[in-house]
Amino acid sequence: MSRPLNKTQLLASIEKEYAALEKLIASLTDEQLAHAPALGAWAVKDILAHLYEWQQMFFKWYESGLRGENPAVPALGYKWSQLPALNQAIYQKYQPLTPGEALTLFRESHHLTLQFIEKLPDSDLSAPGLYKWMNQNTLMAYLNANTAAHYVWALKDAKKALKG
């Protein structure tokens, strides 16, 4: 999967990867969504909650940027080198969710993300370092990572979870 260069490519990539993930999700029962292959392993519902949380973190970063703030990225108390620990904290945070709740949160967040992208001008999407928290990255890079690229990972891990 190549990196999108403009809004049209970004939206097309997101829709393609979302459709593949949604095709799998739509074929599953609540029991399959909740099945974890081993103790402490992630079920499909956990993967969906993970996607939701990362999209919400992006929105918090963005809103902080609009206020001229420089938020802790990826999250307070975590560095990029500590993603496994952050992802474990996200897993634990959302463990109580039912499959239906996780699915609803994910789908709503996906649609809000699409609406957000539609409203942004290409110039904002492609401007390096538009906000302090971005360093020299672009919003498009963060959005691609939190949607299309993350959906590819999610589909792969969901299939693994279902085999276990």
Helix count from the secondary structure assignment:
8
Task: Tell me the name of the CATH class.
Answer: Mainly Alpha
Specify Rg, calculated over alpha carbons. 16 Å
* Helicity, as a percent range: 55-70%
Topology of helices and strands:
Elements: H1 7-26, H2 30-34, H3 44-66, H4 83-94, H5 99-119, H6 122-126, H7 139-146, H8 148-163
Helix pairs in contact: 1-8, 3-4, 3-5, 3-8, 7-8
Structure description:
The protein has a single domain, classed as dinb family like domain (Four Helix Bundle (Hemerythrin (Met), subunit A)). It is 67% helix and 0% strand. With 164 residues, it is an all-alpha fold.
Question: What is the gist of this entry?
Answer:
With 164 residues, the protein is an all-alpha fold.
Task: Label this structure with key terms.
single chain; mainly alpha
